[in-house]
Amino acid sequence: MKSEIEDKKLLKVELGELIKSNREAKGYSQRGLAKAIDLPNSNLKYIEDGINAPGPEVYKKIILLLKPDDKDRGRMDHLYSQIRGTPPPDICEFIIENDEVFNAIRKNKYKLTRTQTAQLNKLLEGFAEENLAYMEEIDNG
């Protein structure tokens, strides 16, 4: 049975590989991406090699710059969360900026059922669609 340390090492390696493949797909050199996110090149190398995991600010900058597709972003967020033991930075910011959501989550002390999760997902997707439509209206109006 693998230890937790070995498991996290594998997660870091996979996250690093995803960052590297997305960096290369966007045409960035390692040095170029490091410079763009204001990070020493050696630190980015350690992240891509799976030696270190990015901290919240670095992860956020990487995601904003590379804009991975939904599949890669979902996997990267999952890996980040498993390594760091916390949701990705944008999710944390959303919860913190929305006190009512924060308080509602705190009241739910138990894991949601599949039905509840599906209902919550549908509700949040509806809000996202409304927000996108609103932003398009502002941009076009």
Largest sheet: none
Helix count, per DSSP? 8
Assembly type:
single chain
Low-confidence stretches: none
Strand content: under 5%
> Which structural class fits the helix and strand makeup?
mainly alpha
- Beta strand count: 0
Q: Characterize the overall form.
A: globular
SSE series: HHHHHHHH
Structure notes:
The structure is a single chain. This protein is mainly α. Helices cover 77% and strands 0% of the residues. It is built from 8 helices and no strands. The protein has helices spanning 4-25, 30-36, 41-48, 56-66, 70-84, 89-97, 99-107, 114-140. The model has no long low-confidence stretch (mean pLDDT 93).
Question: What attributes does this structure have?
Answer:
77% helix; globular; 141 residues; 0% strand; mainly alpha; 8 helices
Give the SSE map.
Blueprint: H1 4-25, H2 30-36, H3 41-48, H4 56-66, H5 70-84, H6 89-97, H7 99-107, H8 114-140
Helix pairs in contact: 1-5, 2-3
Short summary of the structure?
This protein has 141 residues and is mainly α.
